Amino acid sequence: MKIFITVSILVISTLGGWIGQLMDHGNWLGGWSIVLGTIGAFVGVYVGYKAGRHFGV
To answer: Where are the domains of the chain?
Structure first.
């Protein structure tokens, strides 16, 4: 289950940060990038947990 959570945090928080930097005109350390990356990390924990439970790991 740890691998599902780790991979989903990595992927979803990266996507959130990328979308945030697009909203901040390319600034990776802008407010939107940090906020959406953090939200993506929490969503990643949830998705990874659900995926781990679904696959029975």
So the answer is: 2-55
